[in-house]
Amino acid sequence: MLFNHAPAAVAYTFDEPNLVSSAGLVPMMGLAQKAGLPELAQQKITVSNTGADKGANPGAKIASLVAGMVAGADSIDDMDLLRHGGMKSLFDQVYAPSTLGSHLREYTHGHVKQLASVSSGFLTQLGAQAPLLPVSQPAGNGEDMVFVDIDDTVIEVHSPDKHGAGIGYNNVRGLNALLVTASTSQAAPVIIGQQLRRGAAHSVKGADKLIADALAAHRRLPGQKAPVVLRADSAYYSAKVAKAARTGGAQLSVTVRMNAAVKKAIAQIPDNAWEPIKYPNAIYDEDSGQWISEAHVAETDFTAFSSKTKCEQVPGRLVVRRVPEKNAKKLAAAGQDSLFETYRYHAFFTTIPKAVLSTKAADTTHRQHAVIEQVNAELKAGPLAHMPSGKFGANAAWLVAAAMAHNLIRTAATIIGGKLARARALSIRHKIITIPARIARRARRLILHLPVEWKWAKHFDRLWATTLSPPEPSRST
């Protein structure tokens, strides 16, 4: 695309009071209000009871934060996205970033817990607007299952004065966000649990409690009767995590650490038990620095946490994937020549019966745990790019608001359907939300004039019709 005017022939001026840059916020916030976000926040959050006027109107202020994040705000200053042109003609109670920041700074640990309850209730109501976690008929590859994934990520901060900031597992100064998501083979992940922790927190700290709350939140979603599997990496290989999954009615699929018991179990697998497995897409192996396209898998019976008391031990399957060792340094150190093949082993423990998922299917579904990394990446490239305050409570509340914004976008994508149903938040934002519009008034109605030849106009129509159409009149019987 080429600019086809002389520079002197083009000018600009910021003087149009009826323009908005994010017309998609109209159906998005219509959906949020339909799901009761302002009412839930107003009812449950008691920050206004502290006596400070900064805590007033939590319903409208939390809705403003979510709206700003949906529109692309990645810092508290970016909340000015909501205050331009004709936005006040479309929305009421549009707050300045300074007001929203002051509101967040009033949050204590208890208020953050209240906001988390709002998030859970909001997700339940969003689930009534669209089928967020649809499943298929069982075909042996987990199509009929809901996968709950847990992972943590370090949100980088640049000031050591931020409350709770510390050096995390990746040697980066930051705050630690623990997330729990739910997804299916047909649906992108929604966030069903979140918690902000100090930057130096161990991954598994408090994970069992968050898992219990997240599984309860999942059960409250309408129509959720499918079997649930909790997936996690080796940081969460813990008896407490296993108990939380079992108590919440979920099967477990967790990567194991290569301790003596695991190595002994792997050594006892006979050579003829290994099955070849090919990956449709090659997998990058960080240890060898190469792309792996084939491997072998096998399994054996295994009792997890055998050093614990009898009631904490969990019987199940140890599924092992082995790949040929390609690291030249390791081969040389082992004194290995070309007559012998050496392997690296990656194992995970699962309680899913073999009759439900075969060895290969269990391996495939467990590796799909990486889907939660996409959620981490989207949040860190969006609302979590800049934590808003030096106060821990404010940042913890910001994380919860980011989770609500994510779930709102995912619900809108589900309503739209088609290729956008599983599209990234950035794609939804560019195609549906940040559409410029000119506001006109006719016959006591506001009319948004959107760009002609907008490729995703039909998708926008579908979202608008679902979220803003008047309710059907009740029929008397």
Tags for this model:
477 residues; alpha+beta; globular; 15 helices; ten-stranded mixed sheet; three-stranded antiparallel sheet
Question: SSE layout and pairings?
Answer:
Blueprint: E1 19-20, H1 25-34, H2 37-44, H3 58-70, H4 87-90, H5 97-105, H6 109-129, E2 146-156, E3 166-167, E4 173-183, E5 190-197, H7 207-220, E6 228-232, H8 239-247, E7 250-255, H9 260-267, E8 275-285, E9 290-304, E10 314-324, H10 328-334, E11 343-350, H11 359-367, H12 371-380, H13 392-416, H14 425-433, E12 437-442, E13 445-449, H15 457-468
Parallel strand pairs: 2-6, 6-7
Antiparallel strand pairs: 1-12, 2-4, 3-4, 4-5, 7-11, 8-9, 9-10, 10-11, 12-13
Helix content: 25-40%
Q: Main β-sheet, in a few words?
A: 10 strands, mixed
Measured on Cα atoms, how large is the radius of gyration?
Answer: 25 Å
Specify the overall morphology.
Answer: globular
**Pattern of helices and strands:** EHHHHHHEEEEHEHEHEEEHEHHHHEEH
What share of residues are in beta strands? 15-25%
> Mean pLDDT, nearest integer?
91
Termini separation comes to 61 Å
Low-confidence stretches: none
The total of helices stands at 15
The chain-level structural class is alpha+beta
User: What's the number of extended β-strand segments?
Assistant: 13
